[in-house]
Amino acid sequence: MSAAPTGAPATGTGVFSRTRARIAARTLRTDRWWLPPLLTAVGLFAFVTYATIRSFVRTAYWVPEYHYLTPFYSPCLSESCVPGSSHFGTPFPELPMWIPLGFVVLPFLLGFRLTCYYYRKAYYRSVWFSPPACAVAEPHARYTGESRLPLIIQNSHRYFFYAAVVVSLINSYDALTAFHGSGGGFGFGLGNLVLLINVTLLWAYTLSCHSCRHIAGGRLKHFSAHPVRYWYWTQISKLNTRHMALAWTTLGTLVLTDFYVMLVASHTISDLRFVH
Fold it and tell me: How many angstroms separate the CA atoms of 198 and 271, rounded?
């Protein structure tokens, strides 16, 4: 809910239009309404800071003994990548330090997250204050929604979803390739569990996307005529109810996965091996 300040004209556009709530006070809330937006902003800022640093440092992202590759560097397609970490070859030459080695997929993953329906709510409230909470006045003089640049780009979420599916397939390949022993045969360690849990949750987050649910059954008029798609739609709908939780959980597992690979790759700790 938004509000117009005291004395605002009865007619206007955006946040001052007749269809918007008109509240004279800055807020009608008596609780700590600012706490959820604050925690959201802190959480998003912490992840962006960590991910940015790790994406540019170019160290401790590959464990050659067990083929562990952090998702922040997958796929690594440049000649700047350390030997063995390029599962799909090196079609790109050496890159300057200001270009992250995972530059091929990072823009698509960023676009998928930024245009995600849940993340829109999260940063609209916590960063842009549009609105920061129910019954709290907006600080903006105009409201155009997602009809103009840059927010009109939010309508491309479906296309970023397609890219996210491809990236999830690549991460799945990385996780399966990591079942590699130090002697070259099959191996299984704690790092494999970390990679598997991360990619499983990434799949759950990706498939719980609202666009995926719409693709599965959004245009069906007769579910009885499409039993397979209807079943798929019902399963996606169940996942969709957990989309917010999965959005935050996958941010955490991405950090934990990268941090674990970094510790093993830098020889700070040794990977706990179950099968050598």
Answer: 17
In DSSP terms, which residues pair with 92 in a beta bridge? 78
Contact 9, 16 (CB under 8 A): yes
29 CB contacts (<8 Å, ≥6 apart)?
133, 134, 135, 136
First to last CA, the chain: 58
> Could you count the other beta carbons within 10 Å of the beta carbon of residue 63?
25
What confidence tens digit (pLDDT) does each residue in 198-235 have? 999 999 999 999 999 998 888 788 888 889 989 999 99
17-46 pLDDT per residue, tens = 666 666 666 777 788 989 999 999 999 999
Question: Taking the alpha carbons of 115, 120, 124, 127 in that order, is the dihedral positive or negative?
Answer: negative
Q: Where are the alpha helices (DSSP H) in the chain?
A: 35-57, 106-115, 117-126, 157-177, 190-207, 210-217, 227-240, 243-265
DSSP string, 113-161: HHH-HHHHHHHHHHTS-SSSSTTB--S-S---TTSSTTGGGGGGHHHHH
Cβ 3 vs Cβ 137: under 8 Å: yes
Residue 82: both structure tokens together: 């350390």
Distance of CA 187 to the CA centre of its chain: 30
pTM confidence score: 0.87
Nearest C-alpha neighbor of 197 from the set 254, 152, 275: 254
Cα distance between residue 164 and residue 210, in whole Å: 13
Give the Cα separation of 140 and 12 in Å (integer).
13
Does an H or E element contain 188, and which?
A: strand 188-189
Please name which of 160, 106, 122, 154 lies closest in space to residue 40, comparing C-alpha atoms: 122
